[in-house]
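Q: Homeobox-leucine zipper protein, please. Structure only.
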Amino acid sequence: MVRQDKRFLGAESMIMMRDLSDLEREETRPTAAHVQILEKNFEVENQLEPEGMMQLAIELGLQPRQVAIWFRNRRARFKHKQEDDLAGV
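A: Structure for Homeobox-leucine zipper protein:
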Protein backbone atom coordinates (compact mmCIF):
# COMPACT_ATOMS: atom_id res chain seq x y z
CA MET A 1 0.00 0.00 0.00
CA VAL A 2 1.38 3.37 -1.01
CA ARG A 3 0.98 6.09 1.57
CA GLN A 4 -0.18 9.37 0.09
CA ASP A 5 1.28 12.63 1.25
CA LYS A 6 -1.59 14.75 2.61
CA ARG A 7 -0.17 17.83 0.88
CA PHE A 8 -1.15 16.37 -2.48
CA LEU A 9 -4.71 15.39 -1.62
CA GLY A 10 -7.59 17.55 -2.75
CA ALA A 11 -9.79 19.41 -0.29
CA GLU A 12 -12.62 16.90 -0.74
CA SER A 13 -10.32 13.97 0.03
CA MET A 14 -9.01 15.73 3.13
CA ILE A 15 -12.56 16.26 4.42
CA MET A 16 -13.40 12.60 3.81
CA MET A 17 -10.23 11.48 5.59
CA ARG A 18 -11.00 13.74 8.57
CA ASP A 19 -14.57 12.41 8.80
CA LEU A 20 -13.31 8.83 8.59
CA SER A 21 -10.75 9.38 11.33
CA ASP A 22 -13.48 10.90 13.54
CA LEU A 23 -15.61 7.79 13.03
CA GLU A 24 -12.71 5.50 13.85
CA ARG A 25 -12.01 7.46 17.03
CA GLU A 26 -15.63 7.55 18.19
CA GLU A 27 -16.22 5.44 21.28
CA THR A 28 -19.28 4.71 23.32
CA ARG A 29 -19.28 6.70 26.53
CA PRO A 30 -20.17 4.77 29.66
CA THR A 31 -23.84 5.25 30.49
CA ALA A 32 -25.25 5.69 33.99
CA ALA A 33 -25.99 1.96 34.04
CA HIS A 34 -22.39 1.21 33.03
CA VAL A 35 -21.06 3.48 35.76
CA GLN A 36 -23.29 1.79 38.34
CA ILE A 37 -21.87 -1.63 37.38
CA LEU A 38 -18.32 -0.26 37.30
CA GLU A 39 -18.80 1.27 40.77
CA LYS A 40 -20.04 -2.06 42.16
CA ASN A 41 -16.99 -3.81 40.72
CA PHE A 42 -14.73 -1.10 42.15
CA GLU A 43 -16.20 -1.66 45.62
CA VAL A 44 -15.30 -5.35 45.41
CA GLU A 45 -11.85 -4.86 43.91
CA ASN A 46 -10.31 -1.54 42.92
CA GLN A 47 -7.63 -3.16 40.74
CA LEU A 48 -8.79 -5.50 37.98
CA GLU A 49 -6.74 -8.32 36.50
CA PRO A 50 -6.59 -8.28 32.68
CA GLU A 51 -9.03 -11.19 32.43
CA GLY A 52 -11.54 -9.45 34.69
CA MET A 53 -11.16 -6.23 32.75
CA MET A 54 -11.80 -8.04 29.46
CA GLN A 55 -14.84 -9.82 30.87
CA LEU A 56 -16.29 -6.59 32.25
CA ALA A 57 -15.64 -4.77 28.97
CA ILE A 58 -17.42 -7.49 26.99
CA GLU A 59 -20.32 -7.50 29.46
CA LEU A 60 -20.73 -3.72 29.19
CA GLY A 61 -20.02 -3.44 25.47
CA LEU A 62 -17.08 -1.09 26.07
CA GLN A 63 -13.47 -1.23 24.96
CA PRO A 64 -11.13 -2.84 27.52
CA ARG A 65 -9.07 0.36 27.43
CA GLN A 66 -12.13 2.37 28.46
CA VAL A 67 -12.68 0.09 31.46
CA ALA A 68 -8.99 0.31 32.41
CA ILE A 69 -9.03 4.10 32.19
CA TRP A 70 -12.26 4.31 34.18
CA PHE A 71 -10.70 2.23 36.97
CA ARG A 72 -7.51 4.30 36.88
CA ASN A 73 -9.48 7.54 37.16
CA ARG A 74 -11.69 6.10 39.90
CA ARG A 75 -8.65 5.03 41.94
CA ALA A 76 -7.27 8.57 41.61
CA ARG A 77 -10.56 10.09 42.80
CA PHE A 78 -10.66 7.61 45.69
CA LYS A 79 -7.09 8.50 46.69
CA HIS A 80 -7.77 12.24 46.54
CA LYS A 81 -10.92 11.82 48.63
CA GLN A 82 -9.01 9.87 51.25
CA GLU A 83 -6.31 12.56 51.37
CA ASP A 84 -8.94 15.30 51.71
CA ASP A 85 -10.67 13.37 54.50
CA LEU A 86 -7.39 12.99 56.37
CA ALA A 87 -6.61 16.67 55.95
CA GLY A 88 -10.02 17.56 57.35
CA VAL A 89 -11.22 19.36 54.24
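A: Brief note, in case it's useful. The chain has a mean pLDDT of 81.
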